[in-house]
Design brief:
Layout lengths: L8 H4 L2 H14 L3 H11 L7 H9 L3 H19 L2 E11 L25 H14 L3 E6 L8 H13 L9 E5 L5 H9 L5 E2 L7 H7 L8 H5 L1 H7 L5 E4 L7 H19 L5 E3 L20 H14 L4 E4 L5 H10 L3 E3 L29 H10 L3 E3 L3 H4 L4 H9 L7 H15 L3 H15 L5 H15 L9
Parallel strand pairs: 1-2, 1-8, 1-9, 2-3, 4-5, 5-6, 6-7, 7-8
Helix pairs in contact: 2-4, 2-12, 3-5, 4-12, 4-13, 5-13, 6-7, 13-14, 15-19, 18-19, 18-20
Bound molecules: S-adenosylmethionine.
Length: 472
């Protein structure tokens, strides 16, 4: 039976409840009155239930769908402004004991080269990432208790935080590793991680078990209940996601929102981020073998519907998506993107993009500098800010900042200052000139006069005094 507060996977992500939800959505997909009421509720920024959100996703009326997209753009502007947080993935190891049928790291793949970075190799990768300008990483690893035990992950995090090359500095390490124990989550928390990210892949239990035929990841309940264990271990910020293409997207969408509702109900705070990866070609993986792939139009609709349903949750899009898709997605609600990514183990220290250990093909192959310039030309502010988590504004404290609309007096100046650092230390001359103008123009959008004056002072210290790492 469905119970949002249950700690059992099959009760808080309940199959019958999802089927009923989809039936309800089908019955009301042309119910103008109901859809307008749902849009009206969402426009008060209170979020939507999985049922309401599923009706919006099913809606076939063009005009109403346009309204949902407009509202998504408005919510994006009101909560997140035009800032886009930048990050890069760092692949530590592709050793894996699981049998995930969509991932080239699956155990039976004898063709892919297996590699695990040593601490010295991690140092080299981190220096390469710092030299690009990155301040925030998401570390990635396959699941392998012998090759990649938690001690290896913890040591790697320590190494990453310890490296300060020139003005470089990794200030936030997010972690995307397999579901683990409360004890291990506590160790990750103590190591100073930012968000713990774990994609559900699919919320459909039967499909999940088929897609993960072997290895510890086969256990649906253990995987689905991981975020509760992470929070029990003291991690405030968790990142959800499904791998679109594996199952019917409407099923996944309902499951994703039910998961967010569960975390809010039980832990008192919803997910910090939601990622929207789509399955891609990789080594021995052919994405057409999975017949639930979604068009770009549906993908954009999903992003807009997530945006209006969970207005306080950040949304992440990776370089799995092309420049064109990312452009639209940014306007509809994405608040964080990766740039200059390499999805191979040890890829950042190679001159040419290596493919032999790659997890998936990267669609957006531009450099970080090109992505930064492109964002600014589209009137977005690329932000390298990591202040919230370093100032202890995680979990519900971050949500409070969001809800009290203080973001413009806090995140906005922080974004401008970290962008200024990027321009000074890493940008090409063309990017620098676009950025200088943008920062000047954006200063006037800081409402609080004292904060504005302080920001101008800090910006001068960054430019002229060579000082770094100011934050509100
Ligand atoms: N191994 C970890 C786990 O079990 O959750 C997570 C790390 S894995 C490197 C990160 C994510 O990449 C996976 O959760 C999956 O959603 C995604 N992924 C795997 N194969 C993919 C593919 N062929 N195309 C796109 N994304 C893929």
């Amino acid at each position: 039976m469905y119970d949002v507060k249950s700690m059992k996977a099959e009760e808080f992500i309940n199959h019958e409840e999802i089927l009923d939800t989809l039936k309800f959505a089908d019955e009301h997909k042309n119910d103008r009155e109901m859809i307008e009421q749902i849009i009206e509720k969402a426009s008060q920024y209170k979020g939507l239930t999985h049922r309401e959100a599923s009706v919006l996703l099913a809606c076939e009326d063009e005009e109403l769908n346009r309204k949902v997209c407009q509202l998504a753009e408005q919510i994006k502007k009101d909560f997140y402004g035009n800032r886009i947080v930048m990050f890069a993935p760092l692949y530590l190891s592709n050793y894996c004991v699981n049998g995930c049928t969509y991932c080239p790291y699956h155990m039976k793949n004898k063709h892919i080269a297996r590699k695990k970075l040593t601490q010295d190799e991690i140092r080299a990768e981190v220096i390469a990432l710092q030299d690009m300008g990155h301040k925030r990483l998401a570390i990635e690893a396959g699941e392998d208790p012998v090759n990649n035990p938690i001690e290896y992950i913890l040591e790697s995090i320590k190494t990453i935080y310890s490296i300060h090359h020139k003005n470089g500095d990794i200030r936030r390490v997010n972690v995307n590793i397999a579901a683990t124990t409360v004890e291990n989550y506590r160790k990750l928390k103590d190591a100073g991680i930012g968000t713990y990210i774990l994609f559900q892949e699919t919320y459909h239990k039967e499909s999940y078990e088929k897609l993960h035929p072997t290895g510890p990841k086969h256990n649906y309940a253990y995987h689905t209940e991981a975020m509760d264990r992470a929070m029990e271990g003291g991690i405030d910020d968790v990142g959800l996601g499904v791998l679109f293409g594996l199952e019917l997207y409407r099923y996944e969408f309902a499951g994703l929102l039910m998961h967010a509702e569960h975390l809010e109900a039980v832990q008192g705070v919803g997910p910090h981020t939601i990622s929207v990866p789509r399955i891609k070609h990789a080594d021995d993986i052919d994405p057409t073998a999975f017949d639930n792939s979604i068009s770009d139009e549906i993908f954009e609709k999903i992003i807009a519907c997530i945006r209006v349903s969970v207005p306080y949750t950040g949304m992440i899009i990776s370089t799995r998506e092309s420049e064109q898709v990312r452009e639209k997605a940014l306007r509809l609600g994405i608040s964080q993107i990766s740039g200059g990514s390499r999805t191979s183990v040890g890829g950042y220290t190679e001159e040419e993009r290596p493919h032999d250990t790659e997890q998936f093909d990267v669609s957006d192959q531009r450099t970080l500098d090109e992505v930064v310039k492109w964002l600014m030309e589209g009137d977005f502010i690329p932000s390298f800010c990591t202040a919230c988590y370093r100032a202890g504004r995680t979990g519900d404290r971050f949500m409070q900042l969001c809800k009290s609309r203080q973001i413009l007096n806090c995140c906005h100046p922080n974004a401008l200052m970290t962008l200024q650092e990027y321009l000074e230390d890493y940008a090409s001359p063309e990017t620098k000139s676009v950025g200088e103008k943008l920062i000047q123009a954006e200063l006037s959008n800081i409402p609080n006069e004292k904060v504005r004056t302080k920001t101008i002072e800090y910006l001068a210290k960054i430019k002229e005094g060579g000082e770094r790492d100011f934050r509100f």
